[in-house]
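Notebook entry, structure prediction.
Reason for the run: the old model in the group folder had no record of what sequence produced it. Starting over properly, with the input documented here first.
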Amino acid sequence: MIQHPFSRPQLHCNFLFRSTLLCLALLAGCAAETPGTWKQPQVEAEMTRKLELTRIALTPAAAGFEGTGTAADGETYKLKITQDATKGRLDWTAVGDRGSEEDGFFELN
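New structure, fully documented this time:
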């Protein structure tokens, strides 16, 4: 008589336990990467893309980053970026030296 590999209760429980652990590990890994927890290189990349900057220089601040960025037309922006790890959100303000101002955020739903 041929037995199914999970016909023994202990093997079945072991398989379920390992599968559950794998799923939890994958979910934890995915949840760790949100805009609220992005490291400086990723914040710089996203801000460069969003504001179409040719140059960016950020330094860590109390709740995120501060710095400057330069657009292709030469306008220089003062950047203030705030991260909230609990909400998985990054808020930003860019004030240009020619009077322009932009606010925005990144958030994964």
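Summary: The radius of gyration is 23 Å.
The old model has been moved to the deprecated folder.
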